[in-house]
User: What shape does this take?
Amino acid sequence: MTKVYNFSAGPSMLPEPVMARAQKEFLNYNGLGMSVIEMSHRSKEYQALADEAVQDLRDILRLPDNYQVLFMHGGGRGMFANVPMNLASKDGSADYVHTGAWSGYALKEAKKYTRVNALELECVNDKGQHSLNMDALKLDPAASYVHYCMNETIHGIEIFEPLDTGSVPLIADASSTILSRPLDVTKYGIIYAGAQKNIGPSGFCVVIIRDDLIKEPAPFTPDVSSFQITRDKGSMFNTPNTFAWYLSGLVFKWIKDEIGGLEAMEQRNKEKAALLYDCIDSSDGYYVNKVDPQYRSRMNVVFNLRDESLSDAFLKEAKEAGLSGLKGHRVLGGMRASLYNAMPLEGVKALTDFMAAFKSRH
Ligand SMILES: *Cc1c(COP(=O)(O)O)cnc(C)c1O
Assistant: This one.
């Protein structure tokens, strides 16, 4: 089989050394004569690997003691409901920053549980670029919390600085950018991420939460959705996704030991994104990305061909060249190359080489 670079938006590539290790120890974990997928989550051997994964994540993010790591079910979207069920006050409201598709889905879900104040930031700037109007960020100081999406996976828009919300807790959907760069965790009340972009298997959700936000949820909240119960039970109230936890732990170890932490990870990611955006920007308009440069996502690069009638040929020839998953999201069309942590620089080089060759052929 020839090497395929997978640019899919999620589930997406995982680091090759992680996959190789998981394969090697799949049938016999740590000499125990059974697979990790068969082990009781209550066994001391499993608990040891579970604790180590949490500790590695704490180390990578340099988490202060007043932040907890929770692993929950339901992926990223599960948290769209969990956040308001756990944090909304009965008669209050929550601020939802709307910057694209995913923050919009979060907002829509939250409306089932609380009054929502939507802050519409999407705009077209004077250069005709897709941008964000930060002046429209009129926050309510009495809001229960402010929710935003750090990286709009579909629109290719990333917000690099934490929003300043004063004393109102800031909640971030970091599904498609977590662990791609260092974060000042202390600026956030909660950072959460569905795992299948930068961490591991889908269905699993990583939640970084400040202690004071772990409290009695709304009475109708399912126990599996309660931050309080999840914390009290060490994320093992019911059977966790043990394999996802294990594999995520291998990814944390890879970032910590092989990459050398989030500063090094960020350097790699900056280099990859710059290579692709440069290729687009220097194509004399053959390829176009219309996002305001200050908000261009490092993880999801969206672009169109000037002559859209060539899009099908582009995708077909890319696939033949071992470059898969480049078709844009169905709501936007065009192309999207996801450059998550596991995508090596060589993969992006292969893509830009292909793009240059395609341009000269067509
Ligand atoms: C993929 C994604 C989600 C949804 O994750 P699921 O695990 O499919 O629920 C939520 N938010 C963002 C920003 C995403 O990229």
Summary: The longest strand covers residues 67-73. The chain has a mean pLDDT of 97. The domain at 261-361 is CATH 3.90.1150.10 (Aspartate Aminotransferase, domain 1).
